[in-house]
Amino acid sequence: MFTATHLHAMIVHFPVALVLVAFVSELIGYILNKPFYLKASFYILILAGLGAIAAYITGDAAGDGMDGGSLQRALEAHEKSATLTLWLTIAAAGAKIILYFVKNEMRWLKILAFALLFAAAGSVARTGYLGGQLVFKHAAGVELGIGNFDALQSNEHVD
Question: Which long-range contacts (CB under 8 A, 24 or more apart) does 64-68 make?
Fold first, then answer.
């Protein structure tokens, strides 16, 4: 059965990768003084922001009904980190959009945009780690792939 958990797992890797690639591209652009990388970072960051929104919405739906004990604490930590990542990514993209349309060399806004993108890259890494903990430590969203469980319990033969 296709669930919100499946959809979240399919979507979430895109904004993770895109935020990190946008940051690396921005860094290369400033270090090598290459406008191509800065422009690439801008477009990648826009896609990352859209992906972060989709990942957040599907993650919120995937987390519904998962509660209790250490799973609940882990889920809440992941959700808080995801919320921070979402807002940092949107803020970084917003700052870059303003820079794009103003076409003015506002040094303070460039520094702010870079700082927000740097923070988003760190935050997305932390959020991904916490998401991995949900799956690999707490088995959140993991279905047992052992066939017909009811038949196994009643000692019937399962093909």
Answer: 64/4, 66/140, 66/141
The answer as to whether 158 is a domain residue is no
Q: What are 43-62's pLDDT values in tens digits?
A: 999 999 999 999 999 999 88
pTM of the model: 0.84
Distance CA 40, CA 22 (A): 7
Compute the distance between CA of residue 48 and CA of residue 17 in angstroms, rounded to an integer.
8
**AA identity, residue 152:** L
Residue that the structure tokens 């993991």 belong to = 142
- Dump the DSSP string for 93-142: HHHHHHHHHH-S--HHHHHHHHHHHHHHHHHHHHHHHHHHHHHHTT-TT-
Range of the domain at 55: 4-153
